[in-house]
Write a structure and sequence with these properties.
Layout lengths: L8 E4 L14 E7 H4 L2 H9 L5 E8 L5 H14 L3 E6 L1 H16 L6 E6 L11 E6 L4 E6 L7 E4 L9 H20 L5 H23 L4 H21 L3 H13 L3 H16 L3 H13 L9 H18 L5 H4 L4 H17 L12 H10 L2
Parallel strand pairs: 1-8, 2-3, 2-4, 4-5, 5-8
Antiparallel strand pairs: 6-7
Helix pairs in contact: 3-4, 5-6, 5-7, 5-9, 6-7, 8-9, 8-13, 9-11, 10-11, 13-14
InterPro entries: ADH_Fe/GldA, ADH_Fe_C, ADH_Fe_CS, Alcohol_dehydrogenase_Fe
Enzyme class: oxidoreductase
Cofactor: Fe cation
Length: about 375
């Protein structure tokens, strides 16, 4: 038996911030990073909130939110006792807000509504039961999954993402594609998640290059914003896989942007997963659905066409190689492979990978990056 549920009310399109006008005479607590807290976007958010509400801001969120940040947020939430919490920003802000609300509820601090408003098109955190918290001392990212992590409301307003720089647009867009691909070949995939993942992948291949080159195109931004949410809905139900299990370690150890880490691994992971007959057929089916090869092509031809399209997409988005990105040299990377292998084996996302992987498999995938 498979389960599928949609627990978040979704509002999309330009002007969808107007949904916030439903809140009257509430204490609203905004969780965001320091940059957003002093940017014009926070003013757009404040203007959408009726004046009779009391608004507080917690802006200590950093990329890859840490355990310490979440603990600090919980303490503030205990002190302020807000009725509405708004996670505002990229995946880090949304994940932090969700974690703070979740842990606070376990300690008896409840809220009326949790709202997620993404300002990047990538993680899909606005509609998922997942969040990722980091321990910088150990260099480990901890993915958390629980149905209580779903926000109550998600607002997808593309006007909030038109100013996202090209490199971040590319990284977050490739994160969307990875979510879609991993959900598509997951053992927990269903007709429902397939539809979401397939559409998300098609949108990324069609619109990401334009979003990178011409970020002020509102229609294109809207398509990528929708793709991120579709992929988020898919993987929240179906799970992820080895691509994310390893990417979390590249982020934890070397602070690679998460989407870039995923993109660097995608081709090799697809080849590895295609060793599983079911996964191979699914990759081939997706390649044909995206019109990357003739419908009568055999699975190997279709899979290779999918990998070529991904490599072409990376080139169109001018994404760097691992060597160009690493602050440490290759020797340092090799030194840390054993630790990354062990952490990846313990990563919860590995549970839904389509082809079982051991330490040697993960080590080989890491070595392929060099």
């Amino acid at each position: 038996m498979k389960r599928f549920s949609l627990q978040t009310r979704l509002y999309s399109g330009a002007g969808s911030l107007e949904v916030l006008k439903r809140f009257r005479n509430k204490h609203i607590w905004i969780v965001c990073d320091g940059f957003l807290a002093s940017s014009p976007l926070i003013e757009l958010l404040r203007k959408a909130i009726p004046a009779d509400n009391r608004v507080s801001v917690f802006s200590n969120i950093t990329p890859d939110p840490t355990i310490a940040t979440v603990v600090e947020g919980i303490a503030q939430m205990h002190s302020l006792q807000p009725e509405v919490v708004i996670g505002f920003g990229g995946g880090s802000a949304l994940d932090a807000a969700k974690a703070i609300v979740w842990f606070s509820k376990q300690q008896g601090v409840n809220i009326e509504t949790c709202v997620a408003i993404p300002t990047t098109s990538g993680t899909g955190s606005e509609v998922t039961s997942a969040c990722v918290i980091s321990d910088p001392d150990k260099g480990i990212k901890y993915p958390l999954f629980d149905n209580a992590l779903y926000p109550d409301i998600a607002i997808l307003d593309p006007t909030l993402v038109v100013s996202v720089p090209p490199a971040i647009t590319a990284n977050t867009g490739m994160d969307v594609l990875t979510h879609a691909l991993e959900a598509y070949v997951s053992p927990r995939a269903s007709d429902f998640t397939d539809a979401l993942a397939e559409k998300a992948a098609q949108l990324v291949f069609q619109y990401l290059p334009t979003a990178v080159r011409k970020g002020d195109c509102l229609a294109t931004r809207g398509k990528m914003h929708n793709a991120a949410t579709l992929a988020g809905m898919a993987f929240s139900q179906a799970g992820l896989g080895i691509n994310h299990a390893i990417a979390h370690q590249l982020g934890g150890q070397f602070h690679l942007p998460h989407g870039l880490a995923n993109a660097l691994l995608l081709g090799a992971v697809i080849r590895f997963n295609a060793g599983d007959k079911r996964a191979a057929k699914r990759y081939a089916r997706l390649a044909k659905a995206c019109h990357f090869c003739p419908t009568g092509a055999n699975d190997l031809v279709a899979i290779n066409s999918l990998i070529r399209q991904i490599e072409q997409l990376r080139q169109q988005c001018e994404m760097p190689t691992l060597t160009a990105t690493l602050k440490a040299d290759k020797g340092k990377f090799r030194e840390r492979i054993p630790a990354m292998v062990q952490a990846a084996l313990a990563d919860v996302t590995l549970k839904t990978t389509p082809r079982p992987a051991d330490g040697d498999d993960i080590r080989h995938l890491l070595e392929e990056l060099l």
